[in-house]
């Protein structure tokens, strides 16, 4: 019925331990704002942001997951529909970095094979409390052949760059780059058609 | 009455063997000793028998003593076990309901913030919330489209035109004058937010055709 306001729809997913700043990273990107009060995400939420890349209007539907273990059955059902996944850790929290391997394993188990991954070391404004050296982030990213940024939602460092880079990587993998078929499919754990349709 | 003092120790002979106490054995010894004394006056040859009887009575004493002690020990042991059993059973029933495995959690039914919903229920609620959110976003976007489409009055909005040309309840030609009327009312009544007069018209248009 209504004319589409975008050429492509990309579904992105944010994962990582509780408290690393996934919601803040997303809030900075979508609303260019930051809030210091910590409100734990309940299950799963999403935001929409339309960007323009290579002359195409790309609508990003970005799913924000709860990091807490108790929500995992809900959050993992959203992996399959994702075309891009951002793995977020907190540079001041070594446990959140160690768990990146666990999150990578989750992706292997639940996400589409073609999913574009990216590693983010958030809270890089808090250098005095840093416990994860930049080199360690770089190393694990290289090992898995994925991109890496250190970000700060608070100080607005690398946030937009990270999202745009991930979107561009997906765009470059998209053959034909024809408009997305279905506007905003909301269901979790669905067919993961986003990628498959475009690849074949 | 006279014989009572005498016959009293002799009563020990009438008792059940398993009921005998050491005192009974002493009574028996006393009675036998007294009787032997009577016999010994008759002949000295009973003295050997006397020693044997004493020996048997001593053995009898030891056996009765031992038996009673064992019985006492067993009774004590039994009572101890009974108490222990009562204690364990009591503890068990007190713990009943609150006995937990390593993966279980106690829920305080008086806590207003106690967990009450299943993960499946939460999943469904979240799915519905996100569905509605997506629909709202689409609706907002479409609204924006309609607004801008009518504002620039470009004929390149087929969706808009289609909807507008759809037969209304009365007749389609009535729509245009209607809008004009509303616009006029709008101008006269409201202290025009000068920037959005045209935009208001758009919204009025939207509502006017939706009324059908």
List keywords for this structure.
heterodimer, A: 200 residues, alpha/beta, six-stranded mixed beta sheet, 23% strand, disordered C terminus, B: 212 residues, mainly alpha, 0% strand, P-loop_NTPase (chain A)
Describe the protein's architecture and organization.
The complex is a heterodimer of chains A (200) and B (212). A 6-stranded mixed beta sheet of chain A has the order 2-3-1-4-5-6, with helices on both faces. Chain A is globular, with a radius of gyration of 16 Å. Chain A is built from 7 helices and 6 strands. Chain A has helices spanning 22-31, 72-76, 94-98, 100-110, 134-143, 159-173, 193-199; strands spanning 8-15, 44-53, 56-65, 84-90, 116-122, 147-150. Mean pLDDT of chain A is 89; it is low at 189-200. Chain B is an all-alpha fold and 212 residues long. Helix content of chain B is 70%, strand content 0%. Chain B is built from 7 helices and no strands. Mean pLDDT of chain B is 71; it is low at 1-5 and 154-212. The interface between A and B is medium-sized, with 18 and 17 residues.
